[in-house]
Amino acid sequence: MYAYVVRRTGFLVVTLFFVTVIAFVVTNILPGNVALLILGPNASPASMHALQTQLGLNRPLPVQYLDWVDHLLHGDMGTSLRFDEPVATLIAQKLPRSLLLAVSATLVAVCLSVPLGIYSAVKQNQAPDVAASLFAFVGISVPIFLWGLLGILVFSVWLGWLPTGGYVPPSKDPVGTLTHLVLPAGAMGFALTAYIMRMTRSSMLEVLGTEYVKLARAKGMPRRVVVLRHALRNAIIPVVTVIAFQFSYAFGGVVVLESVFHWPGIGQLTLIAVQSRDIPLIQGCIIVVALIYMLSNLAADLLYAYFDPRIRYGGAA
Amino acid sequence: MATAAETVGRYLPLTARRERFSRFADQFRANTKAKIGFAIVLALVVVAVLAPVIAPYSISKTDISHRTEAPSVQHLFGTDSLGRDVFSRVVMGSRISLYVGFGAISGALLVGTVIGLLAGYLGGMTDELLMRLMDAAMAFPPVLLALTLMVVLGPELNNVVLALAFVYTPYIARVARSAALAERNESYVEAAVARGESNRRIVLAEVLPNCAAPLLVQGSLNVSFAILSEASLSFLGLGAQPPTPSWGLMINTGAGFMETAPWMIIFPGLAIGLTVIGFNMLGDGLRDVLDPKVDTVEA
């Protein structure tokens, strides 16, 4: 297991290196450079040149890259052109809100999909099973932003139960935070349901077919107890890894979700950065989002390996 | 001289392949999911091809006096905020979605297959380098990567195809690689090596046809993800630009008129859902029928 963890984490470092290269290259071939963005289109060539020298923009790209990575490693992501604030400060302020959103969405998905998956497995190939998989299929087939908009339409516009969007900090009004969270987390959670449900169902089916479950039933234990106490405990293992993967998916989707609900998290920050071509902010956002996405995938992989000795000892990743 | 090895290498597989295909066709017909998926996709293609005939109104002609009208006999899906017929726009929009879905995934299949086959067949350093690069591309959430690329390329429909082809290439490459790895040690490859065939010929003529099944499944599943991604990008304003009748873009515009004209988002939304369900069912059905190992990927 130890060797696997080291190997897999090593991969992460290598991948992270490539990620920084991609982020740097992509943002540096952007039409229009930073100096132009700061000074505006009417700047004189002399002042452009002066600023470029000041910012070190006329150095060779590899040198700029190394310098940039050096700053990154010291926690310095530069200054946002649009907000005139350190990128790190902006991200630190917005990131927790996005994490709150992604965690809540995953929770919603788990609460929906695990019971549904169990029920589907118990009623295999019967009407409730078919209905549940249809429900999940529809969930993944419709874009998240549409679920969000439909949620707003029904629960905010028609019924008037929930706010249409926005964010209230929990320190100010925890109930307000919750009511603002319901719709976005629900929309994303619904979209995540399918995979977790599918996994729960097939894992449960496998366990329900084992000898010890049959024995427990043969001994006259009530079905309910066997399913929930004996089978579920063993079936839940692969489900946990899928949940970790789904969290990373939820986090990857915050850009779209936050734009629908005006949730001021890192997704919306990324979008603002992109729209205003704020290069340092774009770089900072994509690296932080990619890092968290990678870390949650790493966690999922490690959990998977922890539960599946074949991977742990086989050494193959 | 026609050796036994050549017979095995050339003639037998041909009949075997034909047999395999008829078995495939039988299984496909027996699989409900595959059939429904195929029917939906086929219907969509027909609608897209005949779109100008089906659409009763011009998609760009605005008519302010008839804006945000509720669905009626004249306007089945109602009219939008500029008085355009939503039904006509949804019908024409099928062309955009299919163009992006098929276009992006064809590109990804082309590049991803080459990368994956090279990595899997050659192994060693080539494999390591190529696959670490693919890992890096997959370390970004797909929509975020597409979004970043769109900033560089500029918001335009053809650039969406390009960006999404790039985003989905690693997923194809992974599948192609593992398929090639599995085939590399098969006896028919050894036979080809023994015949003295070049690496290029072996990869293209022997290994590739045998990797087709997993690639087909991954490809058809990825079409649905590409269509979803296009909708997301256009919704964010970074994909197709007005007045293109992209479903995502229509929903973007409709979001502002949700209270008065919910049909502006509901019908394009239904169209996206139906399309994605079609490709997902087709992919799922193909997977059941062909039973290859496929990576799961997110939209």
- What is the strand content of chain A? under 5%
Number of strands of chain B: 0
Strand proportion of chain B: under 5%
Terminal Cα separation of chain B, in Å?
A: 52 Å
Quick recap of the structure?
The complex is a heterodimer of chains A (317) and B (299). By secondary structure, chain A is mainly α.
Q: How are the elements arranged and paired?
A:
The complex is a heterodimer of chains A (317) and B (299).
Chain A: H1 2-28, H2 34-39, H3 45-55, H4 61-73, H5 87-122, H6 127-141, H7 144-158, H8 174-208, H9 211-218, H10 223-252, H11 254-261, H12 266-275, H13 279-307, H14 309-314
Helix pairs in contact in A: 1-13, 5-6, 5-8, 5-10, 6-8, 7-8, 7-11, 8-10, 10-13, 11-12, 12-13
Chain B: H1 4-30, H2 32-49, H3 51-54, H4 86-122, H5 124-138, H6 142-153, H7 157-184, H8 187-194, H9 199-235, H10 247-255, H11 263-290
Name the features.
heterodimer, A: 317 residues, B: mainly alpha, 0% strand, disordered C terminus
What does this structure look like?
The complex is a heterodimer of chains A (317) and B (299). Helix content of chain A is 79%, strand content 0%. Chain A is mostly helical. In chain A, helix 6 crosses helix 8. The longest helix of chain A has 36 residues. The N and C termini of chain A lie close together (12 Å). Chain B is mainly α and 299 residues long. Chain B is elongated and about 75 Å long.
